[in-house]
Amino acid sequence: MKGNFTVRAVLVDKERIVDNQIMQYKTSFYNYIIKEVLARNPDIENAYIHLDGKAENAYKQSVRTYFRQQLNVTKKTVGKFRFVDSKTDNMIQLADMVAGAIRRTTETDKSDCNRYYNIIKPKIVDLWRK
C-alpha cells in the first residue's frame, strides 16, 4: 500500500470499560481513547489532531483543554486541533477505512475478516486491544 502514513490504534471492547462517566457521553469516550493512544506512544510530540465533525466553540475549547491538561504535562504531546468535515477530508476518510478494517477482524464469522487488515498491516506501528 502506497502513501506516507502510519497507524496507531486501539481496538476497544466497550463492554470492558467500567467507568460509566466515560461511556455516558460519546465525546468522553472518544477523548479518553485518543488520550490513551497518545499517552501510549511517548515518541509523539506536537501532534496535530484532526477530529471529525463540526462542533460548538465551547466543546472545541473543552477538548483542547482536556488534551493539553492530560498530555502536555512534561512535554508538548499535543499541538494544534482542527475540526474537519469527514466528507471533504481525505485523511479522516482514510482513518475511517483503517478503523473499519481493524474492526472487521473481530467478525471472525466473516470469510473476509482479515482481507482489508492484511492490506494495511504494513502501516500499523501500534495496535492493542483494550
Mean pLDDT: 85
Q: What is the SS-derived class?
A: alpha/beta
Strand arrangement, largest sheet?
Answer: 1-4
| Alpha plus pi helix count | 5
The global form is: globular
Overall tally of structural domains: 1
The rounded Rg comes to: 16 Å
Element order, helices and strands?
Answer: EHHEHEHHE
Q: Identify low-pLDDT runs.
A: none
Fraction of helical residues: 40-55%
Strand content: 15-25%
The total count of strands amounts to 4
* Biggest sheet overview: 2 strands, parallel
Q: Give the termini distance in whole angstroms.
A: 27 Å
Quick gist of this model?
This protein has helices at residues 20-24, 26-40, 57-71, 90-104, 115-120; strands spanning 7-11, 47-52, 78-84, 124-129. It is α/β, with parallel strands linked by helices. The chain has one domain (7-129).
Task: Characterise this structure.
The model has no long low-confidence stretch (mean pLDDT 85). The protein is globular and about 45 Å long. With 130 residues, the protein is α/β, with parallel strands linked by helices. The protein is built from five helices and four strands. It has one domain. It has a two-stranded parallel sheet. A two-stranded parallel ribbon has the order 2-3.
Indicate the topology.
Blueprint: E1 7-11, H1 20-24, H2 26-40, E2 47-52, H3 57-71, E3 78-84, H4 90-104, H5 115-120, E4 124-129
Parallel strand pairs: 1-4, 2-3
List keywords for this structure.
130 residues; two-stranded parallel ribbon; 5 helices; 43% helix; globular
